[in-house]
């Protein structure tokens, strides 16, 4: 028999062992939601709401793709975009460089 926190009773396949994994009870979490007054997004932590209000909500995208018109409010989303849409681009010193993938010589050394 599984814990009541696990949800509905689950029938295990023959030979499977019951493990002691408890699901997180989210019923108390719903009582502690913090709502953004501008857009309605909800956050479980007030610091996440404050960061959202300061850097994201109502602000224009600040991270622009150097190769196309794509822009986003989150740096990591731009990194995912660059890797999926422009795979021939690499990062050098935290800057995106087009057409350098596979470059064999050290282009930083002066000759």
Automatic annotation (TrEMBL):
C2H2-type domain location, by residue? Answer: 34-61
Q: Which UniProt keywords apply?
A: Metal-binding, Zinc, Zinc-finger
Q: In the record, what terms sit under GO molecular function?
A: zinc ion binding
Q: Which InterPro entries match?
A: Znf_C2H2_sf, Znf_C2H2_type
Q: Which SMART domains match?
A: ZnF_C2H2
Instruction: Please identify the protein, giving its name as recorded.
Output: C2H2-type domain-containing protein
């Amino acid at each position: 028999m599984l814990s009541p926190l696990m949800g509905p009773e689950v029938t295990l396949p023959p030979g499977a062992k019951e493990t002691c994994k408890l699901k997180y009870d989210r019923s108390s979490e719903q009582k502690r939601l913090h709502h953004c007054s501008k857009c309605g997004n909800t956050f479980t932590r007030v610091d996440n709401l404050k960061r959202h209000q300061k850097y994201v909500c109502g602000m224009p995208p600040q991270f622009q793709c150097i190769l196309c018109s794509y822009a986003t409010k989150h740096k990591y989303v731009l990194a995912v975009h660059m890797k999926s849409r422009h795979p021939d681009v690499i990062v050098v010193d935290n800057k995106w460089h087009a057409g350098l993938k596979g470059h064999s010589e050290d282009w930083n050394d002066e000759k």
